[in-house]
Amino acid sequence: MITSVDRLIQEVTHSSDLDNLGMILIHKGIVRGKSRSGESIKALEVRCDPEKIEELEQQFSTHPGIEFVKVIVNTGKLQVGDEIMSIVVAGRFREDVIPTFQKLLELVKQNIEEKEIT
């Protein structure tokens, strides 16, 4: 599933208090063609617990200065170039958004199982 950046931004602006919205940070992770060691990758098997991802969304959406949080993880066998995940964090200021985004990304990655198919 491909998630349009424009659609994500539209969702943020339509469901947030615009008086408190100054930054939208979006991460789009894709399957790369080479592993960290330089080995060619044909595909990537991705698994996650959707309930855990939803818990993270809810937890991080209550952080001070944060207006919107969304995490989308594509599971199953993904090909090179396919989207693995989209993460959106939006809020008042970069001082609110960037640290929240970094911690959320770290925790989402910890809750995703990936198996490279070479």
UniProtKB/TrEMBL annotation:
Xref: Pfam families: MoaE
EC code(s) of this entry: 2.8.1.12
Pathway: Cofactor biosynthesis; molybdopterin biosynthesis
SUPFAM superfamilies associated with the record: Molybdopterin synthase subunit MoaE
Entry superkingdom: Bacteria
Gene Ontology biological process terms in this record: Mo-molybdopterin cofactor biosynthetic process
Catalytic activity: 2 [molybdopterin-synthase sulfur-carrier protein]-C-terminal-Gly-aminoethanethioate + cyclic pyranopterin phosphate + H2O = molybdopterin + 2 [molybdopterin-synthase sulfur-carrier protein]-C-terminal Gly-Gly + 2 H(+)
An example molecular function term from Gene Ontology annotations: molybdopterin synthase activity
Transmembrane spans: none
Family in the record: Belongs to the MoaE family.
Subunit structure, interactors included: Heterotetramer of 2 MoaD subunits and 2 MoaE subunits. Also stable as homodimer. The enzyme changes between these two forms during catalysis.
Protein name, as recorded: Molybdopterin synthase catalytic subunit
